[in-house]
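FORM 7B: Structural annotation worksheet

SECTION A. Query
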Amino acid sequence: MRRWLKSARFALAGIQHGWATQRNFRIEVVLGTLAVLVAVWVQAPLAPVLLACGLVLALELLNTAVEAVVDLVSPETHPLAKVAKDAAAGAVLAGSVFAVLVGADVLLPPLLRRLGLL
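SECTION B. Predicted structure
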């Protein structure tokens, strides 16, 4: 149990670092919270919304880790460093696009019904 708690502290430190240093992470947390609140309000299935939000946040933290490692091992500009950073950012973008599609599919119909527009 102690080993798990120690690991959890390291993980929470990583999340805290992401929150403190990554503007996009903070924006994604706010948007994810809004999506969850809308899902609760319109009584939509919560699991796909939580999964999509969690995926985007996890990808953002991985992007932050990739950028830190690349900066550590290649402080000067290098074509492969650019590839690594761009690919990690692309993963966040892809996850975000699909999270929006999940949100639209899961939330839009009950939201429109709740607002009396459907």
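SECTION C. Observations
The chain is about 85% helix and 0% strand. The domain at 2-114 is CATH 1.10.287.3610 (Helix Hairpins).

SECTION D. Sign-off
Analyst initials: ____
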